[in-house]
């Protein structure tokens, strides 16, 4: 019989199968649980649903990656200039421009090539064999062959291969942290839930990509491949639109502005020269050269190398940047959305607090007690927790094999006693109890030798408790752990204040301990209560007539450096917001401990179900969401809503994450930051940056580097534009003067290109290598819409350019009219004056308020190296026979060199005087 087709009007996956009874789900797929699907049903289902695998993202080819380096407006303008130069027979100029383009493309390509990957990691998650029941027989099949309607047999340790509605659940616990963000294993059952139940609380469902940690069961497959929740997340990750980075946007804006300037200059200067009677071909060539001069040819190279160096610096600090502009984008970040589990916390459960009738104990740091010195009641409660346990420790602590034999005896002074081991097996809570015991010399293996286990009452979601029975002489010792309220309800006795004798547990005692549990829970701890008793045989009920021992508090500890890192973010004007799949109480407590919020009692927290698309929110709703710093039970779609809300307000957003559920938001954010150690492949593939050490502090270092890079690029652009505009002013003024004088053009076309490639690129590169100002992180983030050059910067460009141009024309006039030099020698003097004025001008770019001897320019060793190199290249331009002939230069002589030195230092002297005046003003303002 053909499988029943689902009608288009039926409820969708997200609000259907988890709300239906088992019988209704089986009927929907026309399958019998004891028989499974027939061959015909399997073929029909495969035809409708396709293979059980995720769609692969398109892989960017090497050629696409290479040609992507030419998308900048600045690059396009240079390409047009190069084509024009070739068209007019200016081969050297065309070759020079072509070389600049190729160097920039190669640097960008090589920097990004290794980071070009696809979503293959998501696509292959869970690709393994799985047990199914078909035609009444159990068989193993490849998980890709699974179809909707298949009856799946699942056991502890299995990856869930598809979305499955449970029919049978035997103490099943599932780690869903990669999908939902929930740090604790989720206990599953078969009962349907309400339609509006969040994904993390749909206890009757197993979802593709998660892992069964304990128990076993059976279920019916309800969705495969891209129809699963994991497929839905993959779809969002692949379709989420990555906005253009702020640096790319600013460079394109600058390029468009310079493109119009170029067009205007070419037409204006060519027309002006021809009107003044100059040679038409020469003026066309000069106009083309000046049009190119208006574009800082070195800008793409400087920006690319500055960003590439940022990638290297960040790699040394355990942050792998996959895209060049991502480094600068971090520097403009105003909001960081961070997950909790594995990002702010260690992603492991640790026992830190024990509360007993005899007192409270903090179990923190290296063990300073041994079994003999520790209080008896503390040892009693720890032993109960170690016995009532199914976990197995790895090599770094006392571990046991299946028979209970000790494989690796612990050292009571082991500094790593409470540290997670990759070989630990079992529930994190039980692992934490075992490791707490190891700190005091208590291992399950040694206890089992004294008290062998004879019975276990497994954890049950109805009673929320677990018990184990252990033979002790003629009687049985029963150890119990569970939810505090449930355990207290079964206890009739408790230890006294001394922890020695037993007294009746009264109702007022229960009320006191319930309040104590609530108080500890508010601090972010997960609470367990422990109790014990002695019985005669294994038939005795486990949860009656118990003696209450106390409470243990376990929590996923924040990373050690996290408070400092978040405080640095706050000092830098960066807002840190938690968006987690965990419960609200846990999220608020961790947010307070990490200093994301100041006061857990006063802090507002929003449930993910309250979030919606910003376009559907009122202004009041948006303002409320904007004011919240902790979001709990957040789904992947809701994370996208949060990012979109910030981006529509022109706020640069960074998103950190490590799970599959984080992938869409990581891609949508301006800068996606994935965890390298604990992060899933899915998160790492779509992120812009991967933290190799999973340290939040590396993000702060990246933000610092991003700010430094933008500041360096801004200085480089200022340097190139000031001197390039000076060339334009000088040539335009000389062309205009040609109507009433015989003054030659101060620069020849190839001389302009030589200066722009030599005296522009090397000093600009040196500026791009600066380490930045020490206090750069004390300033607030740049506005998202702020250009590379603000209005004040453009005013400064005009002023400095005019002063440099005046110095060049002054040198030309003195050489041509005063000294009577011939045209070639006089033009060489104006050429060298401009060149050295450019070199000295670098020192004018130190920050206002800095001193002449102590500033970021002087501290940069690359500046001196670039000046020495450029000086050598300029001397070669005059004295190297072949190059001199190409550039049409002539030795200026001693008189000429003195003139060059004097005139080129005028802008330098003016700049240093201005900086000294600004420093004096800063000192008075500080006083």
Distinctive features:
alpha/beta; single chain; 8-stranded mixed beta sheet; Calcium-transporting ATPase, transmembrane domain; 24 strands; Calcium-transporting ATPase, cytoplasmic transduction domain A; Rossmann fold; about 950 residues
Describe this structure in words.
The structure is a single chain. The N terminus is likely disordered. Helix 5 runs parallel beside helix 25, helix 11 crosses helix 12 and helix 28 crosses helix 29. A hairpin with a 6-residue loop joins strand 15 and strand 16. It contains 30 helices and 24 strands. The protein folds into 4 domains: 147 residues, Calcium-transporting ATPase, cytoplasmic transduction domain A, CATH 2.70.150; 280 residues, Calcium-transporting ATPase, transmembrane domain, CATH 1.20.1110.10; 157 residues, Rossmann fold; 204 residues, 3-Layer(aba) Sandwich (Calcium-transporting ATPase, cytoplasmic domain N). The protein is an alpha/beta fold and 927 residues long. The strands form 3 sheets. Strands 10, 11, 12, 13, 14, 15, 16, 17 and 18 form a 9-stranded mixed beta sheet that branches.
